[in-house]
Amino acid sequence: MLDKILNINPERIAVAEFFGAIGSPEKTTSFVRMLKAIEENKRVKALVIDIDSPGGGAGASEQIHASIKKVAKEKPVVAFVRGTAASGGYMAACACTKIISLPMGIVGSIGVISMRPMLYDMLEKIGVRMDVTKAGRLKDMFSNFREPTDEERGKEQALLDTIYDRFVDMVANARDLPNEKVRELATGEIYIAEQAKNLGLIDDLGDLDNAIDLAQSLAGLSERKVTYIKPHKSLRERLLSGTSTGVVDSFAWAIENRLAGPKIELR
């Protein structure tokens, strides 16, 4: 379907939406497939990614970053921050050739966090005890049902530090900034777009039209032909979209995601 849309006329600029939290496997896969189609389509000469995302799962964020970089090797990619490009959302923007944001856009939140609900107090109050059998001393180090040991806390922090260092390196390489400078900015805080521009985290201020104009210029296109596309939704997503069942399904996925194990996120 995407190929049919993009093959209507030659030499077009594609504008793709990248909205919401990062993490759902279906959503991530759909966006990556869309990027692959854009990468391979010779009629698309430039891409604008319309971003409004607070970030999300570390693995999913890096997968999206890598997919955008592949497109950027073939054609100009401009990130347009309409609202928020924070954490994993900013990681995605950093894979683009240029970054433009609305003046009131929010950028940054370069950091890593691990969260999980601790349930042992609640279970103790209702008389429930969790019995664990394991092979491997640290197999349950991310358990929700007991306090972590000092050793486990240290290993979890080392894991987060490794991911944090990788995130910092990504930003430094993408924005052509010294690693030490990015580390100073990578406190997890967010910046208003004008601050972000002065700090070198984005390239310019503007709206979506400005981003499209920049993409046209970078691609050397004489005409401004634009195709707006969205990631493909599965039949299940389309059937549940906008319904109370869809809301419950999304909520249930989020709860299950939290309880299933450690969640290291770029938020």
Chart the SSEs and their pairings.
Elements: H1 2-6, E1 12-19, H2 25-40, E2 44-53, E3 56-57, H3 58-74, E4 77-86, H4 88-94, E5 98-101, E6 106-108, E7 113-115, H5 120-125, H6 150-175, H7 179-185, E8 190-192, H8 193-199, E9 204-205, H9 208-219, E10 226-229, H10 235-240, H11 244-259, E11 263-266
Parallel strand pairs: 1-2, 1-10, 2-4, 4-5, 4-6, 5-9
Antiparallel strand pairs: 3-11, 6-8, 7-11
CATH architecture designation: Alpha-Beta Complex
Q: In one word, what is the shape?
A: elongated
Q: What is the CATH C-level name?
A: Alpha Beta
First-to-last CA distance: 33 Å
Q: In the CATH scheme, what's the topology name?
A: 2-enoyl-CoA Hydratase, Chain A, domain 1
Order of helices and strands: HEHEEHEHEEEHHHEHEHEHHE
Rg computed from alpha carbons, rounded to a whole number of angstroms: 21 Å
Strand tally: 11
Helix content: 40-55%
Oligomeric grouping of the chains: single chain
Q: What's the average pLDDT?
A: 85
Tally the helices: what do you get? 11
